[in-house]
Design goal:
The chain is an alpha/beta fold. It is built from 3 helices and 13 strands; from the N terminus they run ββββββββββαβαβαβ. A 7-stranded mixed beta sheet has the order 6-5-4-3-2-1-13, with no helix packed on it. Strands 7-8-9-10-11-12 form a 6-stranded mixed beta sheet, with helices on one face. α2 links the parallel β11 and β12. The N and C termini lie close together (5 Å).
């Protein structure tokens, strides 16, 4: 499996029979193997996760299917792509023939849209979108407690659905100040993954080392991949 960090929350995942492109908005892409099917995901409609530019990818690849959160309005999708676009709402499960058989499960975000669990060829990958424990200093205690409960609920659903994730792509957002680590920490305590790729860190690559240096991260710090730059690839 090869994983390339593109930009913000975008990754290209290359499996044996399929390519998975998550939340692409901009940035150079590696060569796309046209011998493999390509699934393009958009977790929700926010402009840092969805761009209509994904529909220009047909110029680079002959076999594309789009998997969009159902909060993305249909008028954002050109009519010529209706037949190759799937919409997913929270709790939906989609079985596709692409890549020799691919199963996708959607989870309710704590912000907008969905998170995706993708299973293909014995590999399991999770892209959180904006599903995170968004605790903010400026919010009320009641609001933050509700956020924590909603996040925990979705993590428990994911744990019950998939107990041995190969890869998890998770938000790590410095705007949360001292709470920046909570989403990943609670994910690893509840679900776990063999490899964690932080994302949504707004160009602050140093925040990954800050997470790994925390005492509470001692049980999983070796599983957190350190991303140094856009376009960096990892083979796992």
């Amino acid at each position: 499996m090869k994983i390339t960090y593109i930009y913000h929350s975008c990754f290209l995942v290359e499996l044996e029979q399929i390519l998975l492109l998550f939340d692409y908005i901009k940035g150079p892409l590696p060569p796309l193997d046209d011998g493999k099917d390509l699934l393009v995901f958009a977790s929700h409609r926010h402009e840092d996760h969805f761009s209509p530019s994904i529909f220009k990818l047909e110029n680079r690849h002959p076999r594309i299917r789009y998997i969009l959160s159902d909060d993305i309005w249909q008028n954002r999708v050109p009519e010529k792509y209706f037949s190759c676009t799937e919409y997913m709402d929270p709790g939906a499960v989609l079985e596709l023939k692409e890549g020799g058989g691919t199963r996708i499960t959607a989870f309710q975000s704590t912000d907008e849209g969905v998170a995706f669990l993708v299973e293909n060829g014995g590999s399991s990958l999770y892209h959180a979108g904006d599903l995170n424990n968004w605790i903010w200093n400026g919010e009320t205690k009641a609001w933050n407690n509700n956020m924590r409960a909603n996040y925990r609920r979705e993590l428990e659903k994911l744990r019950d659905c998939q107990k041995d994730l190969d890869v998890a792509m998770l938000p790590l957002d410095g705007r949360q100040e001292e709470w920046f680590y909570l989403g990943i920490h609670e994910f690893m305590e509840t679900v776990g993954a063999k490899n964690v790729f932080p994302m949504h860190f707004w160009g602050d690559f140093g925040i990954i080392e800050r997470l790994k240096a925390l005492e509470c991260a001692s049980a999983y710090r070796d599983k957190v991949m350190v991303i140094h730059r856009e376009g960096e690839s990892f083979v796992i």
